Amino acid sequence: MKIKEVPQDGAILESTEVRDVCYALDEDGTYKEVLSVGWSPKNEAIQFAWSAINEESAKIRQEVMEGKLSPLAYHLSRLVMTPRILADYTGFSTRKIKKFCRPELFAGLNHEVLEKLAGALNISVEQLRSID
Amino acid sequence: MQLNFEHKTAGHCENGVVRNLLKYYEVDLSEPMILGLGSGLFFSHMPFYKMHGMPITSFRPLPGAIFSSVTRRLRVKIKRYKFSNPDKAMAKLDEILFREIPVGLLVGVYNLPYFPKEYRFHFNAHNICVIGKEGDEYIVSDPVVIQKCRLSSADLKTVRYAQGTYPPRGRMYHISSIKRLRPVDEQMVRKAILKTCNRMLHIPLPMFGVKGIAYLATRMRNWVAMYGERGAALNLAQVIRMLEEIGTGGAGFRFMYAAFLQEAGEFLGKPALRDLSLELTAIGDLWRDFSYHAARFFKKREGEVASYDQVADKLMKISQREKEVFTRLEKIMKSE
């Protein structure tokens, strides 16, 4: 790859201070470091992975509205959390977290538990209770 | 307080932290040299190890391997810590920092505030360096960020105790002595290159090195049957991300290693390495060509048809070319 071929396809990084350092050849054929804001195939791969996650969350959101799952299930999916990892963050067992995904059990949770869950997900208790 | 620490960006976080730490002790090496001395180029495809339900494809050795090899070769002494108690982990960090020693930390990126949200998966092997503290804020040098950044102690504690696969558990490290430092010499470079060649050519398992690339190609041909159209495309996207997402310097470290071969060729007075560097650059371009074509599976461009056989063929060719390069490299390094 030559320096002038280093892609600058901004889609994800340009609003942050994170950059890719690319190694590319200058006109004398010597390697130099060049900063890049991204490359389309990579950006598309990342966006595709997210679109799969978003589709899955939309499906779960539907099930929450139908009363089959609790809002926690939706937030887990949306935030790429798994019951196992949330269990590690909160100290609850994985089985308990899975139970909290059932609407009838979620409805009975006290504020303290909700606060713990919301805290680990980095959202507020109100957000945790809703699916907005 | 803030240490007089030069923050420099790098392609890869681990290389970057090692280089910046060494620079603080006036050992000045380039990132490609760190990669080369750390034998940081590799390939593996392991269908039985999964992340987010997909097989892991990797273009480098295990996290921490580059760091260990480089410091061992240079005879730089490192002290490492791990804590079960987060408060102790923070207290110890302060104690060392106030002795004017920059500290490398292993963190998870899921809760790292300055990362774009698209990058925030449960990846727990990111390296940063703490170089100062003002009030409740830490000054951090993260090699993939242009400027130094700041993290509140609460945020820092969270990312040091990220959960998921391979949790960091407050791991940290610093250089404890450079008394026995050996400057880079011919033997060191030669050994490091031979180790890379050995890993790329001679591991007697199909998942690793140049054979691993062919193995991935073979498996890829069956992906649609195994995972369905969408699952296959998701797997392919995963490979592209490992090739290009933050840290590889482009094309899964191939360009960075080519830069190293160029530097090593000059250092060893072996012009043949410059030719091999060019050849590896051409291979890097092939990897990029592979990514470009692979992207068609998840971003349809008009009038294009793509098949997994087509992209798998590209990988077979790459495997063949890499085999040639590393065989020639090994021969040159073993002669004399």
Question: Which properties best describe this structure?
Answer:
heterodimer, A: 132 residues, mainly alpha, 53% helix, B: 336 residues, alpha+beta, Cathepsin B, Chain A, 2 domains, six-stranded antiparallel β-sheet, 14% strand
H and E string of chain A = EEHHHHHHH
Strand line-up across the major sheet of chain A: 1-2
The best one-word shape of chain B is globular
Instruction: Please give the number of β-strands of chain A.
Output: 2
Taking all Cα atoms into account, the compactness measure Rg of chain A is: 21 Å
Q: What oligomeric arrangement do these chains adopt? A: heterodimer
Estimated share of beta-strand residues of chain B = 5-15%
- Through-space gap between termini of chain A: 45 Å
The greatest interface here is: A-B, 37 and 55 residues
Low-confidence stretches of chain B: none
Q: Taking strands numbered 1, 2, ... along the chain, how are they ordered across the largest sheet of chain B?
A: 3-8-4-5-6-7
Q: Into which percent range does the helicity of residues of chain A fall? A: 40-55%
- Summed up, the helix count of chain A is 7
Let me know the average pLDDT of chain B.
92
Structural class of chain A: mainly alpha
First-residue to last-residue Cα separation of chain B? 52 Å
Low-confidence stretches of chain A: none
Main sheet specs of chain B: 6 strands, antiparallel
Radius of gyration of chain B: 21 Å
- SS-based class of chain B: alpha+beta
Beta-strand share of residues of chain A? 5-15%
Q: Describe it for me?
A:
Chain A is mainly α and 132 residues long. Chain A has seven helices and two strands; from the N terminus they run ββααααααα. In chain A, 53% of the residues lie in helices and 9% in strands. In chain A, strand 1 and strand 2 form a beta hairpin. The longest helix of chain A is centred in the middle third of the chain and has 26 residues, at 40-65. Chain A starts with 19 loop residues before the first strand and ends with a helix. In chain A, 35% of the residues are buried. The mean pLDDT of chain A is 93. Chain B is α+β, with helices and mostly antiparallel strands and 336 residues long. Chain B has two domains: 13-37 and 77-177, Cathepsin B, Chain A (Alpha-Beta Complex); 186-334, no CATH class. Chain B has eleven helices and eight strands. In chain B, helix 1 (13-24) packs across helix 2 and helix 6 runs antiparallel to helix 11. Classes of the chains: A mainly alpha (132), B alpha+beta (336). At the A-B interface, strand 1, strand 2, helix 1 and helix 3 of A face helix 8, helix 9 and helix 10 of B.
